[in-house]
Amino acid sequence: MEQAAFDFQKAEADEVDDDRKDDVDMSTEPDAEFVLFSLWLCVPAQTDAVCSVCSVCSVRALHASPVYLVTNPKDNAALPGLLASLIQKMVLSPRDPVKELDANRPYILVNEATWVWKRVKWLARRKLNRHKWSANATQFILLQDLGFGKDGRVWKAATLAGLCVVIKFAHLLDKVPKNADYAKLKTAAEQRLRAECARYEQTNDRARIATLGSHLALILPYYSDVDFSDRGHVELVRIANARLVKDHRLLPKDNERRHWKIESPAKKGGKSRAVAIDRVDFEDVPADADLDAVLASALKPLKLDI
Prior knowledge:
By secondary structure, the protein is an alpha+beta fold. It has helices at 8-11, 79-92, 182-202, 231-247, 291-299, and strands spanning 5-7, 34-43, 59-69, 106-110, 115-121, 140-148, 152-159, 164-170, 208-212, 215-221, 224-225, 250-251, 260-263, 273-276, 283-284. Among the domains are: 106-221, Phosphorylase Kinase, domain 1 (2-Layer Sandwich), CATH 3.30.200; 224-302.
């Protein structure tokens, strides 16, 4: 389906229109005993029309295999050959480097009510701003899937004004176990997001809850990765742990290296600092606790002295 380019000059204050023809209900999943293998392909066309997705072809078609019953191995004899053929086609398919800001690729644009695929008409020389905080934006462009953890999937995103953020969507909002109480699971997921947001507020770090795609999401600043081979970064992580435990009386549970990031200074001559993420399971340090012992237990899994 043809999608118009998204023009920043006209739309920074506008809501994103959803021009999808059909909505897909993701609140339930198929029966686990069935598997459907499918493949999206851009098919060369005989016309001069241009595909809104790849800018090369004019048709984006869905090619799907038959539905295979997992409990019937006899009918699945063709699966090994099918998978081998699929992998071979993937390896031989032409690939182009993906630029973060690229007018020739589509992006997911999400607002309070919904999401839609659109191409973005980036402003000339647009650069993302990682330092200015997005306090009120309600529309975001999803730039990169950063992966997922125990509670949710995380995206690098930008506001229409180019402010760079991270958005965390709860897992339970898009995948619900069979026969589960969706409303109850959604409420629990939202409560965990709110609890995590409160932990950031407790240390005066920027974070906020917003409704995106009709669901709650946690919005955070975009931080850089910690280089644990850099002694300066290691010392910043050590200092940040000490402040969490001794100043804010918080114990970072599940304290792993991947849960630490670096916030670079907004101005030249400023100082970087380490920031803990994934705070939903942080615990309050008891009033009578030995803070030095608590800090030692927090630092141990990080292995900063190795």
